[in-house]
Amino acid sequence: MRFTLTLAALAATALTAIAPANAGSSAEYKITVDSYDLTSARGTERAYASIERQVRRFCEQSGRRTLTQLNEETRCKTELMADVIARIDQQPLTAFHRAGNTQRFSNN
Fold it and tell me: What's the pTM?
């Protein structure tokens, strides 16, 4: 399966709450998940990692950041990841996400 989500559609609702610190109010980003075998644990992990990398790139700033900015980045990544997983709506990814992988952002 290949998914491409354009997050501009979220601007009126979710993105205003989770807009990355380095983006303006009209942030747009595409999340693309290439063909991964979501019937296998390995395929699901690889798909999740790909989504996670793209979300991280969307939300993170470069350079020095204040504590407030770091907190905003973490919130952006956590909320955006949950939204992307929900929009893809594939049970293996949803289960993987709910199994505790939401804490990975706070460790990086």
Answer: 0.70
- Mean pLDDT within 102-108: 45
At 11 the three-state DSSP class reads coil
DSSP label at residue 102: G
Going from the C-alpha of 79 to that of each of 14, 34, 36, 39, 64, the distances in angstroms are: 9, 22, 23, 25, 23
Whether residue 94 contacts residue 85, with contact meaning beta carbons closer than 8 Å, is answered with: yes
CA 48 to chain centre: 9
Give residue-wise pLDDT tens across range 2-45: 555 555 433 333 333 344 444 444 466 677 777 788 888 999 99
Task: Please spell the DSSP secondary structure of 16-76, one letter per residue.
Answer: HHH--TTS-TT---EEEE----TTSHHHHHHHHHHHHHHHHHHHPPPS---HHHHHHHHHH
